[in-house]
Amino acid sequence: MKKILVTGSSGLIGSEVCVHFAGLGWQVHGVDNNQRAVFFGPQGDTRWNQSRLSEQLGGGFVHHELDIRDRQGVQALLKDVKPDAIVHTAAQPSHDRAAAIPFDDFDTNAVGTLNLLEAVRQACPESPFVHMSTNKVYGDKPNTIDLVELETRWDYADPAYADGIAETFSIDQSKHSLFGASKVASDVMVQEYGRYFGIPTCCLRGGCLTGPNHSGVELHGFLSYLVKCNLEGKQYNVFGYKGKQVRDNIHSHDVAAFISAFIAAPRQGEVYNLGGGRANSCSIWEAFKIAEKFSGREQVHAYVDENRAGDHICYISNLAKMKEHYPNWDITISLEETIRQIVVANQERMALAR
User: Looking at residue 9, which CATH number applies to its domain?
Assistant: First the structure.
């Protein structure tokens, strides 16, 4: 039986990957220590998702309570498990939070990734290594693209970006936030272990990764947190850019499907911009309307006339390279269906909590 090791296994993407590969008959080893609750408080707690995996996958899932900053622990685990593939989703994921905890952020995102890469090189260098990077490695450079203001969103005025931002876009000389900088370090290191040591690796520079199993908080988890605010009648704060800032959103199911495609036919040191593309893009105002459609509740919100530092005004992922390398992969879940699922999942969790 093949074995896969998934870090951040209780998170949105990690848990989706666990379920996907368990369904393929793989033995799943999950690594998670609920650090999200430390970073974001009780609302970020993911123990419920860990319990869900244990119940749903049974003996096909083995949980390892391990911090990826523990270098010796990581090396021992990789040596013991010797997985056939590694999917690294564990991270400090908020560019706002990083400024308050710079050492925790860098040690988790950069050093933790290096710990894993070196352990893989020593224990199983032939195993594909998939790293969840972020579009924040581009810093605020996307904001230098000429934009046009439409009624409910910003959009690219330059036709060269009609299909979004490609992997050739520069990551240099821009404001990243400390989170973006620590993810640049991990991103480049993953590429280097692929090119220098010949390990099959890829970096997935994610846009807004979302889905019904996301523990969204204000500092991370755009759609999940927006829906949660909608259902609870809680104020959602819109930070700058007239609320017309655009994100492309991809369901965690489609993320797991691409990871599976890469692992089945891996390449060395690759980089992919992973998002929902133009079809799954929306502004905050547009997201409000879709959430209201499925919840039947008006979105309570307030506008803060100051954008987050380094925040993107408009970001849409160009999916051409992904589709060229893996032509059998495509987006299968629409933006509206994604938001509908998030609404239903949150309604169910709220009902259970009563």
Answer: 3.40.50.720
